[in-house]
Sequence to fold (324 residues):
Amino acid sequence: MSPIWEEQYLLRIFVGEGDRHGRLPLYEALVELLRREGVAGATVLRGIAGFGASHVCHSDKLLDISHDLPIVVEVVESREKIDGIMPLLDSMLKGGRMTLETVSVRRI
Amino acid sequence: MSPIWEEQYLLRIFVGEGDRHGRLPLYEALVELLRREGVAGATVLRGIAGFGASHVCHSDKLLDISHDLPIVVEVVESREKIDGIMPLLDSMLKGGRMTLETVSVRRI
Amino acid sequence: MSPIWEEQYLLRIFVGEGDRHGRLPLYEALVELLRREGVAGATVLRGIAGFGASHVCHSDKLLDISHDLPIVVEVVESREKIDGIMPLLDSMLKGGRMTLETVSVRRI
Fold:
């Protein structure tokens, strides 16, 4: 059977490396939540610089390179799955930003 | 002449840092393939954490931070070029995942 | 008030880590320009490998891992804001490549 392209959604969550959720870094808490909720996979990228809305606590100056690098948590999932976890994400992020876009997915 | 926006496609290939293709890391073998096939450019990003479909060998636990970080290989190309290399990518990936989305490209 | 999804644009600027703009690395000059022009935020990602159009000075060989890693500067903004800064970006990049795509944005 040949692989096919299937329509799904790419969700990207922008936080700062220094943001926390209880005792955990926020991005680790997000990854734990995503696993617990059964999303198919997640990838965490760390930027080398950035500013502004890429972290939860807005700042008017360039991010301190060593202390609050931007983090992007990426998830590719169905719209239903993403809509289902959105209230949980909203309550954890309290500030910050997410983007959503349609992508075609090929599983081999 | 003013630069213009041209419609192309962003292909993202998700593998694990520990995945291999013969004697090479899989992501290096993919970059070699992409160059040999004449794609215009490729960018390889390494995540700092992740789980699940972001690597070829699915796992039920969080990726070991030091041994199998998620890798994303990105290509921006025409649909014809991407369709042309897809059978080669399918045969190298044997598991794993790709996403495709339309983007406007500006070359300056 | 519940957060909503708002249509904006993801601009990605591909340069090389070794590219310069005057005395600054080009990607740092881009981040300074973006802040000065009041964009809401920017994230700078550094690749671990790449080739071709991911850096300003095109090369026919794989990027030297230690000297010219690919850099992606990402901005999420309104189309008006992006169109407004485009002439400035065009004049700074002189070669290189940008991609633009629509995304839904959620601010919490």
